[in-house]
Amino acid sequence: MRRGTSILFGVLFLTALGGCDGRHNWMAGAGEEAAAIGDLFLILMVGAAVIWSLVVGAAVYAHRRRAHPGLEREARLFVIWGGVVFPVLLIGALLVWGLFLLKGITADEGDLTVRVDGERWWWRVTYETPTGDVVTANEIRLPQGRTALFRLTADDVIHAFWVPALGGKMDMVPGRETTLALTPKKLGNWGGLCAEFCGGAHALMRFDAVVMAPDAFETWLAREAETAQVAADDPGFQVFLDEGCGACHTIRGTQAAGPVGPDLTHLAGREKLGAGLYEMTPEHMARWITDTHAMKPDIDMPPYPHLSGPRLDTLVDFLMRLE
Amino acid sequence: MTLKKRWIAWAAVGVVALGNAIFWLAPYNIAASVPHLPGVGEVLHQYMRNSVRARARSVAVPDHVDLDDPGLIRLGAGHFATGCQTCHGAPGIPRNPVVLGMRPEPPALTSENWTAKDFWWIARHGFKYTGMPAWPGKGREDEPWAMAAFLTHYDEFDAASYADAAWGDRQAWRAAAVRFGEPSEAVALENACIRCHGKDGLGREGTAPKLAGQSEAWLELVLSAYAGGHRESGFMEPLAAGLTEEQRSALGQRFAGMDGAWQGRPVAGDPERGRMLAETGSEPEDIANCASCHEGAGTDGLSPRRADTPRIAGQDGYWLVNWLTLYRDGPVPDTPRAHLMAAAAKPLSDEDIADLAAYYAGR
Fold it and tell me: What pLDDT band is residue A2 in, cutting at 50, 70 and 90?
């Protein structure tokens, strides 16, 4: 029985440890803010371990020793210094440290500004650039070594923006704006997610946070700012219009200007489909269109099961060309 | 104690035996030819009235329904000719002797005794143990208001004005009874449609939706959906159910071929805000724009791109409000693309709907 219990706990512990691995690892040190919190956490843990050992050691010592009534004054001083003054100073110092850290993380300045609007259940992403806003969705690319200021909003319910490996998290609250600064240090595709339960597909509300070399980032952003190159008689675009996709989705540079769903101007340039869920492949795209709610339950996009055959292929082919 | 138990047992046996005797021997004669015992008919009738009053009290007239609207009254009169006149007679038309043999016999009607809400409730729900059926379009809470509108004005009609309201200038038909809505020799096929939709397909000044120039595919799709129970309507299902596929196709062709200028009857709302929602949509409220599907083709650019999508620009405001509310609250048709419209209607508030209807009615 006892053996079974310990095996169970062992399994649970290892499972929990699995969360510390890979692209969602908040101790990966991939961002300065995450690293700062990681450092604080390490100091806290080591300090706590030392103090705990001392306290337990003192308790064991006191238990084993015979009582010395004559040392009452020393004992009282020991309790006051060790049990009141020391913890107050230490915890006060940690609080001050933590507050300064928080101030840095919620700074209102950065090398670039990215607005992220939490939707059920995806992310509307807007880069503020000198030449105007660049709108994209569900994938956030960041330049290595530069501080990105995130201005966070939500237009339906409370979400929370979190890229564990880079730092955070921060609530996104309807009706107000919160800010968060992230300074990525390590290149890579880090996972982001919604960290506040927001309804049915909450667990499927994810995104890729791709950290790029600054030059590559600038190239990407310039390209992202461009409109889509779509020929007016593109057969796939005709299917797109006929099916009414433009009522919700925007493809910049075309008549499709729907404000509701994710901007599709450079859809195929993203690594994932469905807000950080599926690899961007034609197969996933076809299934996303026809069997939407099997791939992501409860979402506002209605499925198009009546689309099939060449019409569907043409539409998917068109969407996969939106790079 | 045991004595008491024995008594209870015997009493139970007695009750069961008596119940069985009444059930199997049926001493109360339910023959329609035999009158109720004295007082029974009166009690049942008063209970019926109480039942209606108690339930109709909590009914509310929808904002966009005007019970004095002549169009709505004509629509009620038209459906009365389809579904009610057979049993109840009509202004200036006596009841058929056949129905006088029913018990309770369907009464010749009057506007007295019932309020508009009562009429709505009765038309919507019907009565058990009588010949009065519930509304054929099960989820269509909106439609029986046309009956309430007509019946609250019932006493103002005589034979001529009733025929005019129900049939327009197709007054040839005067029979005292019609098979429920079924086109027959008495009701020529085209008369069944144009008496409400107008011979020009423009809806007889707000009696029914405009059809002239809608695509043939859309008209056929809708008629088939009514016929197959895929689209609910107490007005249209009884009429469509009797049509053959050829007839539906012929009707679609006929109305698609009509060429009328649409000028929607207005409805209260802010058309400027409606225009913004219709053309652009709204990001914070997740409202998709209407124009992507319902505009973009035709000579005026206000017809839909797809043949299986209806034109809405210039439709009457009343119907636009009605349909948007239906797509939002149900019953949503289960035709192949209806769920797309339901998804579009989902985020709309009553105000959004009024504004959109005001805008498109004015296009």
Answer: low
- Distance, first Cα to last Cα, chain A: 58
Residue A298 forms contact with B (CB below 8 Å): no
User: Alpha-carbon distance A31 to A184, whole Å?
Assistant: 4
Q: Whole-angstrom Cα distance, residue A251 to residue A230?
A: 9
CATH 2.60.40.420 for the A112-225 domain, yes or no: yes
Residues 6+ apart with CB under 8 A from A310: none
Domain boundaries, chain A: 24-105, 112-225, 235-320
pLDDT band per the 50, 70, 90 thresholds, residue A102: confident
B171 neighbors B92 (Cβ within 8 angstroms): no
- Which of A155, A157, A260 to probe the B interface (max B CBs under 10 A)? A260
Q: Any residues with CB less than 8 A from the CB of A111 and at least 6 apart, and which?
A: A143, A146, A147, A148
Instruction: Delineate the domains of chain B, giving CATH numbers in brackets.
Output: 64-167 (1.10.760), 182-260 (1.10.760.10), 271-361 (1.10.760.10)
Q: Give CA–CA dist A308/A273, Å, rounded.
A: 20
Nearest Cα of chain A lies from the Cα of B41 at a distance, in angstroms, of 54
pLDDT tens readout for residues B22-50: 999 999 899 999 999 999 999 999 999 99
Which residues on chain A are in Cβ contact (under 8 Å) with B289? Answer: 246-247, 257-259
Q: Where are the alpha helices (DSSP H) in chain A?
A: 2-18, 32-64, 72-79, 86-105, 214-225, 235-242, 282-290, 292-295, 309-320
What's this model's pTM, rounded to 2 decimal places? Answer: 0.87
Asked if pLDDT for residue B186 goes beyond 50, the answer is: no
Whether A259 and B280 lie within 8 Å, measured CB to CB: yes
- How far is Cα B80 from Cα B234, in angstroms, rounded to an integer? 11
Q: Shortest CA distance to B84 belongs to which of B96, B71, B101, B70?
A: B96
Q: Residue A201: which of A170, A159, A164 has the closest Cα?
A: A159
**Which listed CATH number (3.40.630.10, 2.60.40.420, 3.40.220.10, 1.10.10.10) goes with A235-320?**
2.60.40.420
* Same fold: A112-225 with A235-320: yes
Alpha helix (H) ranges present in chain B?
2-25, 40-56, 70-79, 85-88, 97-100, 116-125, 144-152, 159-167, 189-197, 216-227, 236-241, 245-256, 271-279, 291-294, 317-329, 338-345, 350-361
Please write the tens of the pLDDT for every residue from A7-49. 766 666 655 655 556 889 888 889 998 998 888 999 999 999 9
